[in-house]
Amino acid sequence: MKKLLPALLVAFAAPASAAAPRETAVLAGGCFWGLEGVFEHVRGVTDVVSGYAGGSAADATYERVSSERTGHAEAVRITFDPRQVSYRQLLTIYATVAHDPTQLNRQGPDSGPSYRSAIFPQSPAQATEARGFLGRLSASGTWKRPIVTRIEQGRFYPAEASHQDFMRRNPSHGYIVVNDRPKVEALRKRYPAFWRG
C-alpha cells in the first residue's frame, strides 16, 4: 500500500467526537473474518460482530449469501467510543488497512458481490461523512485504480456463531495466515496510536 496522503492523515490529527459514548458502524470489504480481526485491535472499538448487510433477514445465512444471489455483503458491525476513535478514523483504517477499496466485487482470493466494498451508514451524519471521505479518497490519487466503494442502505444481521471471532479462535488457519494476519500487522505498524493488542 502506498504511503498515506496528507488529506487522510488529517483525519487522525482531528480529535475524536466528545458526543455519544457509543456508536456503531457497518462496513463491508471482503471476508468478514479479516475485517473483524482488524477492527478488534483498534483502540476505542468495544465490539465487532461479523454478519451480512444489504439483503433480507430471510437470506441472512452463510449458505444463502454464498450463492451470490441474496444482495447481502459480508460485513462487520463495529461498536465504538467516539471519544477515543472517530467514524472518519475508522473509515481511514478501513480504506488503507482492512481491505482494498479499488477491488470490485472481490477481495484477495474471494470473488462475488458478497465480497464487495460498501459502507452502510447508520445515521445521516455518517452518510455525509462517508460521502466526503470517499470523495477525498478518490481525489487523492493514492491508488492507480478507481475507488469502487459504494454507500448503501440495509440492515445488518449477525452471522452464525461459527464465524464470530474466527481469527482469534483460529490464528493458524491457512486463510487467516495468508490473507488476514498481514492486515492486522499493517494496522499495528501504520497506526500505532490506534493499536490495541
CATH class, please? Alpha Beta
User: Helix segment count?
Assistant: 7
CATH topology: Peptide Methionine Sulfoxide Reductase, Chain A
Structural domain tally: 1
SSE-based structural type = alpha+beta
Instruction: Kindly provide the radius of gyration, computed on alpha-carbon positions and rounded to a whole number of angstroms.
Output: 15 Å
Numbering strands along the chain, what is their spatial order in the largest sheet? 7-6-1-3-2-8
- The helicity comes to 25-40%
Describe the structure.
The chain is built from 7 helices and 8 strands, in the order αβαβαβαβββαββαα. With 197 residues, it is α+β, with helices and mostly antiparallel strands. The protein has one domain: 2-Layer Sandwich (Peptide Methionine Sulfoxide Reductase, Chain A), CATH 3.30.1060. The strands form 2 sheets. Strands 7-6-1-3-2-8 form a 6-stranded mixed β-sheet, covered by helices on one side. The chain has a two-stranded antiparallel ribbon with strand order 4-5. α4 crosses α5 (124-140). It is globular. It starts with 5 loop residues before the first helix and ends in a 7-residue tail after the last helix. The mean pLDDT is 92.
Short summary:
The protein is of the alpha+beta class.
Please write out the topology.
Layout: H1 6-13, E1 23-29, H2 32-39, E2 45-53, H3 62-65, E3 73-80, H4 87-98, E4 106-107, E5 110-111, E6 117-120, H5 124-140, E7 150-151, E8 156-158, H6 166-169, H7 174-190
Parallel strand pairs: 6-7
Antiparallel strand pairs: 1-3, 1-6, 2-3, 2-8, 4-5
